[in-house]
Every structure is written in C-alpha cells, then in structure tokens.
C-alpha cells in the first residue's frame, strides 16, 4: 500500500531502488526530497458504486475529505521535520495526535477505496479460499459475520471505522472498531474497512445508517480483501 | 433507581426558523430522528439498568455505563443546544441581550470577535464527532473554551453556557465538507439571552429538569 500513499521524487525513488532506507537516504543527502502524500486515483468512476453509494458522496468523499487528510498530513509532517531539526521534543510530541488523525485518515480511505468495487466489476458476492475459511472459523458463516460486522458498525459512538483484521500473532481474523481516524496498526493487519463517519453516507441515507451498513456488502471487493490476508 | 422515562422536548421555534443558517431539513432530522434516538436508547438503557440493579448484577450495571453516558449525554447536549439557538431576527440573537456575559467575554478574550474566532477555531480542530463549549469554571468563575468528544457532556465543575454540535449530521446536508461556514453561521443564531441566563444561573439551574440525569452520568 505504501507505494500508493506516497509519490516520491525521481531522486528519492532511485535511492529507494538502490536499497537505501528512506531515513538513511534522508540523512545521507541534503538534496533528498521526502515524498509527499498524494491523493490516490479511485480505481473506478465516482458513480460506479451506485445505487449503494451515490456519485455525489463518492466525489465529495474522495476529492474533498480524503484530499484534506492528505493536505493536513503533509503540513503536519513538515512541522514535524522542522521540530526534529530543532530537536524540539515537546513540539514533536504535540504533533502526534494530528499525524495520527490525518495520517490515519489517509491510510484508512486509501484502503477503503481499494476494498470496494462496482457490483458489475467484482463487488459483492462472497469471499473465497483462505479468507472464506478464516471468516467461517471465527464467525461460523458469512451471514453471521456480516450480522456481527453491521452490529459493530452500528455500535460506534461517534465517528469511526469497523474493520475485519488479522491478528498477526494468532493468524485469526476478527472484527474491531476504531474511533475517528485511528488506523489499524500494531499487531493487527487491516483486511476490510468500512467508513462509519456520517460523511460516508449522510447525503443518501441520512440517519438511516443501518441501511447503508446493509447495502455496502453489495460493493465489497472480496478479492482485494483476500489478497491482504 | 427510578426508571424515569424521558421524552423529546419540543423545539422553542419552528423547524425552518433558523434558516438560512441551518436548514429546515437538518433541523427536522436532527430533532425528530437523532435527538429522539438518543432518548429512546436512554430509556432502554435505564430500563436495563433498573433490571440489573434489582438483580444486584454489578457486572451488567458496569457494562451499561457506556451506553448511559452516550445516550444521556446526547439527550442533555441536544437539549442545551436547541435552547441556545434562536432565529436571527430575534433581538436575543444580539450580544446586547447578554450585557454581563459580553463584558466578561471582552475582558477575558479581548473582544467578542476574538472570542468567536477562538471558538470557531476550536470547533474546526475537533477530530471526529463532538461538541464545542463555552463553559464557566464553578470554582474560579473563569470563562473557558473546551470540547467534548462524541456525546460526552462537559466535565463536572464546568457550567455550560454555549454548546455547538459539531457532529456531521448537524450541518452536512447543507454545508457538505465546508464545516467552517456552518461554524461561522452559528453566531447569527446564538441566543445571547439564554447565554446570559446560564451565566447568571447556578450550576444545576443550567440543566433544568435534566439536572438529575446529569448527576447520574
């Protein structure tokens, strides 16, 4: 995923190809330009997820909301670099919530776009292979899993996300919710994320969020989810 | 404990009375759907809690605290919010309706404009759903700006004077992602007379009939 989150300069890319770690390259050369986070293109048209998610929601969500996370993350990382160069530890710490929020927003939305697809082009249906087995091992059946996932989405108190994650210690999959833009990090690996912020559905579903949660399965890209396993 | 049933308070103005700052569609959904849902879930939680208490099931009681905090908070916060708004045409929408509070805000922030700028900036800094508040510390009497996340109420010892809902459902149908315009528009429909009354009131008085509910969360 990191390749889609950042577009680095040519010099940076060749440095990376040469095997230098980003941090080492940064330290070694003052002319190194750190890559900026950029808005990834959607892998389908804004209207392609209709009627599940309206074209207007997709356009605002991608062009405005996701873009704002990208812009604010870049601003925060510039401030962090300045604080690092001044060895200002307090300023570095103070920036962490902003980086978590906007960096999380960028990561979460990027994963979200990828794990959706138009129903005529891979969206909906059922998972296959190891993913199917993993879901059935944890939740008995796909239908039971969806019911529990929808309940988790409905139980979010405020803004947030529900994820199917893989516990990298046990190898098992499970449903977890995250507040606001907290990203799936640490021992959990994100497999499938559904955005439960009101901006993800309100123009179309208003307060009837349960209808959005039920409908979104029609555009889940199980092939992408399976590849993440 | 008493299994008091809470009900939706009527708005003190028509659904379209806050236009153009807040559309009638938003007000209708916000009041009849969102606020009503908090009340329904609050009543259900209180009923479950009464059952747990009668069975002396402490674990079940503790598990219900989260739902109580969220739904009672949602009821209290929205009730305070409706009260501190007013149609722009009302004389109460002018800061002159709050002479003592306006003087205190000017003394504390430099000017009313600076207070409003700081309040708006605070709202825009919220990360996720939540509320922005002007509160008064009940010990020092100082005016302070603070936020609460999701449906948390203002902390104990802080008397709410002005609350602004910054959940997306409060503005999205009209303002989309332009939340700054919503935040700035609030100042045209702020009920300064109510703010002055809260500033002059004791702590419990601000919550009115919900004072008992507030003390239970």
UniProtKB/TrEMBL annotation, chain A:
Matching InterPro entries: Fe/Mn_Superoxide_Dismutase, Mn/Fe_SOD, Mn/Fe_SOD_BS, Mn/Fe_SOD_C, Mn/Fe_SOD_N, Mn/Fe_SOD_N_sf, SOD_C_sf
Molecular function per GO: manganese ion binding; superoxide dismutase activity
Cofactor(s) it depends on: Mn(2+)
Domain annotation Manganese/iron superoxide dismutase N-terminal: ranges: 38-117
Keyword Metal-binding: yes
Keyword annotations of the record: Antioxidant, Manganese, Metal-binding, Oxidoreductase
Binding site for Mn(2+): 61, 109, 195, 199
EC numbers: 1.15.1.1
Source taxon at top rank: Eukaryota
Protein family: Belongs to the iron/manganese superoxide dismutase family.
Name listed for the protein in its UniProt record: Superoxide dismutase
Gene name per UniProt: Sod2
TrEMBL record, chain B:
Binding locations of Mn(2+): 30, 78, 165, 169
Protein transport among keywords: no
Enzyme class: oxidoreductase
Compartments where located: Mitochondrion matrix
EC annotation from Swiss-Prot or TrEMBL: 1.15.1.1
Reaction equations catalysed: 2 superoxide + 2 H(+) = H2O2 + O2
Assigned keywords, A-Z: Manganese, Metal-binding, Mitochondrion, Oxidoreductase, Transit peptide
UniProt keyword Transferase, yes or no: no
Chief place of localization: mitochondrion
Domain Manganese/iron superoxide dismutase C-terminal: residue ranges: 100-198
Required co-factors: Mn(2+)
Family from the record: Belongs to the iron/manganese superoxide dismutase family.
Subunit structure, as described in the record: Homotetramer.
Chain's role: Destroys superoxide anion radicals which are normally produced within the cells and which are toxic to biological systems. Destroys radicals which are normally produced within the cells and which are toxic to biological systems.
PANTHER family: SUPEROXIDE DISMUTASE (PTHR11404:SF29), SUPEROXIDE DISMUTASE 2 (PTHR11404)
Protein's recorded name: Superoxide dismutase
The organism of origin for this protein: Lachnellula hyalina
